[in-house]
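Notebook entry, structure prediction.
Reason for the run: the old model in the group folder had no record of what sequence produced it. Starting over properly, with the input documented here first.
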Amino acid sequence: QVRLVESGGGLVQPGGSLRLSCAVSGTSISGDVMGWFRQSPGQQREWVANITPGGVTNYADSMTGRFTIARDNAENMLYLQMNSLRSDDTAVYYCQLSRAGSGEYWGQGTQVTVSS
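New structure, fully documented this time:
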């Protein structure tokens, strides 16, 4: 079975940085689009960034220039480097694997709290 497990969340001050990781087991991620989403209490799940199998990256407007998505296919890992964090970045962050012909797989999320 395909499993995604996020880690690296925690409490950080505004302006700080955090790196999230997503470990995938049960399948290779090399041919899949990988992405990050986030969800705050009472809000819809929001797309953050994704990365294609070829390494092309895309970011939501509010994350552009602050966040960097990366993948390590050899280790079956996905990462999100978050810099210049703001209070409105506070959310549960979810890793997503998108596979053509199969659908999407999700992790359980990791909490990021940006607060003084």
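Summary: DSSP finds no helices and eleven strands in the chain.
The old model has been moved to the deprecated folder.
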